[in-house]
């Protein structure tokens, strides 16, 4: 559900009064509409009598409230937020829709009213009512929280409605639209036949059916594991700091070292038996070392030793998951949790795979290799939950299970729901065979659930000795400090105690404090100087970060830090958009080509692709890592993709000739050392604004990362190879072109140049087919390989691809440039453009109402407007006839757009009472552009397996009748005025 803000005139007295009156009127209407549904249920009928009197009573009040909202709507100007993003604007939109609903419901001339047997539910469907309740609840809460705290918000009763074939997400997270329905009628697949020669040497054959051999279990098992896996599955665990020597050992030690039977820590007792229950909660302050502690427990041999006592001879399976709010979507979501746990479980016990996925297992067993390759699996939350529960149920009789789950507070979803999920796993007899160790910050939601209900510990209360040992060992790493500690033991003891006590149980504080103590140490001041350093350090982490980052750096250094931070933010945004979990954190190599200025701009254009020399790679990596460490004072870290340590393990000296070492350095990921650091940069008041103010005026992070991709491809870390495997380059291409879409600050007009360099560079690597004049790598980014043999030729595939990626400025400049050079194009090349080719306008509107889980953006109004207003040979208009790429059916961009709208309605991709500026408001404007641009008023959308034949007006009327939205009513009126 789209969020709205309190921006603009929302605090005006008139605005507040108008919103309050509307919400009260709309909620009253909703309650009566809901009552009509309940009356129909009680009577066993569909509320056959039209409730005209009841709805009429609401009509006048609602109209008045909408008129009052209309009077407070701000005038749209460039620097103001979109009206739909404000509470008054959102309420005004919903109010207009409700007035249309009431007009239709009480009008005696309405088509549905005049039909015999029509009911209230025919006019106001259940899905509509359910959406209205949810929308009003959200707007009421937003009004109370951001504008008027005196407004009373009561939980509205919601109409439970689930469409046929749709499953609810039990954790409450919005799911994408339903999978595409199967046609109502399908031809039965004919068995494949093969010819057999009856008599050798004779020309007599018979045909017999080809019998498929069942796919081996091992192949099916590996296939399912591959689908469950994701690239960032182990990243967080690898990045969690390993416990310092002897740290946390107290959890496994007895109270008296001499007495092996003495009392042990409660957690050890919990591991050994059943009496303390199936769940243990570990909590602690931010930075107290909870993730490190969970990793320590998960990896330690003593954990398994005690679990085996609990299991009483049965095998014990352990699995872990580390939620990470700074990571990919999978690292912070329920889908990632379930996929990771299932992957660990089925990797250890392959025989349970068929029990976890019985229907998929059966399906895959009957498929051949080609069919499996073509199969696209996308597990829903419901699928994963069902599979996980089935695997647990199948495993329980034969083994015990212990799960270690870190960072519940970093889960991106409903915390109450995930608490219930873990509690439900332990209900009944299952609680005797399963243990779950959970960790989180001491938030109220977790305290209420666990503090008095399950055994638990507060980490900061137990780690004083660990922090003492860590502090002492870190100080002794410095030769001069070690000598001072030895020569003046009393002063050294006082210094260590001072640092540990000031940390107040926060490992992160003492870690950063020690970095600062060692960095600023001078032999002249000795231990007294170190003590003074500790004394002036602030206790609060946020103040410590501010000291290190802002106060200890001058303006020039802050500008460099702001650039790095901006690049990291830009990558997080783009990687999340295209769901590339492996690219969320920038690598050293990516940053190395994004930090420098004009010299690298020139190199990106003039250089030819080549293999980078180890020396150049090392110089780039060393300079980049050094800059990161200096500008962020240890708040960022550099992690290896392989388990080979962190940045401190890099030894550049004497390794300049070894490309494997250069590659290892280049592939390291730049991350925040702790969640609290990222939270401070992102959420601490004033920090983000201050960083933005320090960023150079001519800098754009997306343009730099676009350029970085070009330079990476032109300085390959691997041996150059020309081939046709687009999959190898595609993730980088998708990142680069998506970064290009976000470019805003481009004073030197480099975006078009860099995008063209992407196309040229990949073409240089591409092993082309000279005999095919249409051969180009970009066409394989526009559709599956299997359709190319029979598809219409693709003209200008790279331009088509950039249109699909929504690169409005690039496409506009490129079309203009190509039109200007029209006379320079040879007749031979012009002949390659056939009328059958899919035009740019069709690609620009391909994702009109839904992204359909792709990496491509929703259709952009400005791009569509440009293409309609600038029709030319390479950009024909909305009524241009072409052949659909996959179906081979005749189409025009206008008919294709109408089909998108009809499909979106059927697949529930359009929201009722939509207040998202990227929702109905956006695509309705695109339809208007087509109407103004001369879309064929006689166009007919032919019938298919799901919908009957319809005129263009019929499609628009179908939408208006379904949603009762003001934008759709305006489209119908606009069409009728044209006719």
Automatic annotation (TrEMBL):
PANTHER family noted in UniProt: AMELOGENIN, NACHT DOMAIN-CONTAINING PROTEIN
InterPro entries attached to this UniProt entry: DUF7791 (IPR056693), NPHP3-like_N (IPR056884), P-loop_NTPase (IPR027417)
Location of the DUF7791 domain: 560-716
Keywords tagged on the record: Coiled coil, Repeat
Pfam families with a match to the protein in the record: DUF7791 (PF25053), NPHP3_N (PF24883)
TM region positions: none
Organism in which the protein naturally occurs: Trichoderma gamsii
Coiled coil (UniProt feature): 811-838
Record's protein name: NACHT domain-containing protein
Signal peptide positions (record): none
Domain named Nephrocystin 3-like N-terminal: residues: 264-441
């Amino acid at each position: 559900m789209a969020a709205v803000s309190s921006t603009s005139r929302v605090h005006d007295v008139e605005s507040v009064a108008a919103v309050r009156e509307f919400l009260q009127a709309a909620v009253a209407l909703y309650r009566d509409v809901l009552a009509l549904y309940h009356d129909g249920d009680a009577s066993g009928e569909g509320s056959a009598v039209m409730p005209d009197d009841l709805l009429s009573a609401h009509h006048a009040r609602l109209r008045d409230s909408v008129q009052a909202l209309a009077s407070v709507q701000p005038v749209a100007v460039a620097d103001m937020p979109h009206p739909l993003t404000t509470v008054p604007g959102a309420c005004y939109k919903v109010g207009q829709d409700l007035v249309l609903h009431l007009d239709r419901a009480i009008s005696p001339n309405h088509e549905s009213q005049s039909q015999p047997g029509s009911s209230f539910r025919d006019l106001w469907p259940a899905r509509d009512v359910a959406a209205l309740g949810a929308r009003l609840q959200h707007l009421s809460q937003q009004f109370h929280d951001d504008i008027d705290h005196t407004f009373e918000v009561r939980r509205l009763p919601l109409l439970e409605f689930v469409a046929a074939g749709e499953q609810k997400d039990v954790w409450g997270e919005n799911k994408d639209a339903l999978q595409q329905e199967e046609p109502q009628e399908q031809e039965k697949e004919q068995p494949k036949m093969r010819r057999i020669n009856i008599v050798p040497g004779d020309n007599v054959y018979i045909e017999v059916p080809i019998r498929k051999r069942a796919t081996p279990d091992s192949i099916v098992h590996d296939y399912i594991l591959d689908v469950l896996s994701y690239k960032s599955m182990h990243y967080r665990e690898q990045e969690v700091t390993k416990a310092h020597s002897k740290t946390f050992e107290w959890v496994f030690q007895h109270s008296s070292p001499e007495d092996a039977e003495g009392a042990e820590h409660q957690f050890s007792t919990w591991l050994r038996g059943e009496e303390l229950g199936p769940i243990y909660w570990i909590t602690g302050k931010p930075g107290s070392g909870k993730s490190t502690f969970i990793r320590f427990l998960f990896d330690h041999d003593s954990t398994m030793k005690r679990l085996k006592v609990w299991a009483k001879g049965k095998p014990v399976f352990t699995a872990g998951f580390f939620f990470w709010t700074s990571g990919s979507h999978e690292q912070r979501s329920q889908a990632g949790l379930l996929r990771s746990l299932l992957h660990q479980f089925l990797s250890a016990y392959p025989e349970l795979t068929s029990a976890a996925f019985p229907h998929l297992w059966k399906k895959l067993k009957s498929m051949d290799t080609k069919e499996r390759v073509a199969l696209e699996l996308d597990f829903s939350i419901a699928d994963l939950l069902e599979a996980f529960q089935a695997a647990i149920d199948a495993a329980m009789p034969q083994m015990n299970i212990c799960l270690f789950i870190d960072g519940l507070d970093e889960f991106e979803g409903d915390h109450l729901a995930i608490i219930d999920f873990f509690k439900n796993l332990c209900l009944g007899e299952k609680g005797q065979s399963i243990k779950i160790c959970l960790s989180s910050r001491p938030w109220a939601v977790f305290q209420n659930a666990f503090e008095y209900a399950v055994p638990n510990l507060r980490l900061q209360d137990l780690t004083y000795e660990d922090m003492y040992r860590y502090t002492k060992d870190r100080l002794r790493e410095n030769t001069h400090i070690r000598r001072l500690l030895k020569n003046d033991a009393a002063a050294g003891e006082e210094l260590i105690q001072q640092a540990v006590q000031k940390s107040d149980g926060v490992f992160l504080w003492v870690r950063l404090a020690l970095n600062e103590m060692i960095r600023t140490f001078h032999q002249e001041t000795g231990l007294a100087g170190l003590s003074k350093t500790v004394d002036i350090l602030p206790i609060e982490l946020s103040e410590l970060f501010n000291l290190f980052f802002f106060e200890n750096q001058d303006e020039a250094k802050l500008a460099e830090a702001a650039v790095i931070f901006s690049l990291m933010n830009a990558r997080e945004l783009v990687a999340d958009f295209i769901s590339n979990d492996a690219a969320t954190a920038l690598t050293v190599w990516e940053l190395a080509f994004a930090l420098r200025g004009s010299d690298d701009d020139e190199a990106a254009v003039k250089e030819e692709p080549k293999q980078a020399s180890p020396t150049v790679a090392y110089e780039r990596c060393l300079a980049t890592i050094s800059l990161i460490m200096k500008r962020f004072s240890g708040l960022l870290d550099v992690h290896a993709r392989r388990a080979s340590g962190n940045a401190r393990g890099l030894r550049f000296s004497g390794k300049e000739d070894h490309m494997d070492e250069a590659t290892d350095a280049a592939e390291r990921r730049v991350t925040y050392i702790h969640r609290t650091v990222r939270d401070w940069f992102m959420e601490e008041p004033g920090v983000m604004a201050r960083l933005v103010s320090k960023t150079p005026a001519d800098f754009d992070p997306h343009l730099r990362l676009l350029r970085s991709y070009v330079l990476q491809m032109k300085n390959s870390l691997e041996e150059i190879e020309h081939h046709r495997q687009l999959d190898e380059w595609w993730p980088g291409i998708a990142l680069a072109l998506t970064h290009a879409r976000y470019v805003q600050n481009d004073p030197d007009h480099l975006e078009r140049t860099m995008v063209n360099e992407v196309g040229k560079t990949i073409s240089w690597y591409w092993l082309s087919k000279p005999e095919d004049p249409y051969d180009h790598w970009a066409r394989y980014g526009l559709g599956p390989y299997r359709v190319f043999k029979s598809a219409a030729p693709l003209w200008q595939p790279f331009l088509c691809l950039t249109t699909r990626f929504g690169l409005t400025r690039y496409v506009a400049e490129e079309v203009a440039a190509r039109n200007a050079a029209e006379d320079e194009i040879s007749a031979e090349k012009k002949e390659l453009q056939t009328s059958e080719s899919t035009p740019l306008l069709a690609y620009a509107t391909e994702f009109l109402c839904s992204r359909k889980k792709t990496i491509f953006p929703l259709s952009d109004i400005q791009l569509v407007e440009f293409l309609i207003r600038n029709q030319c040979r390479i950009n024909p208009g909305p009524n241009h006839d072409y052949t659909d790429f996959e179906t081979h059916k005749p189409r025009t961009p206008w008919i294709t757009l109408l089909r998108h709208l009809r499909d979106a309605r059927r697949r529930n991709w359009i929201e009722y009472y939509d207040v998202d500026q990227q929702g109905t408001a956006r695509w309705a404007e695109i339809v208007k552009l087509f109407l103004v641009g001369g879309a064929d008023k006689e166009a007919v959308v032919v019938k298919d397996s799901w919908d009957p034949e319809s005129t263009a007006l019929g499609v628009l009327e179908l939408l208006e009748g379904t949603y009762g939205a003001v934008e759709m009513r305006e489209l119908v009126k606009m069409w009728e005025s044209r006719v």
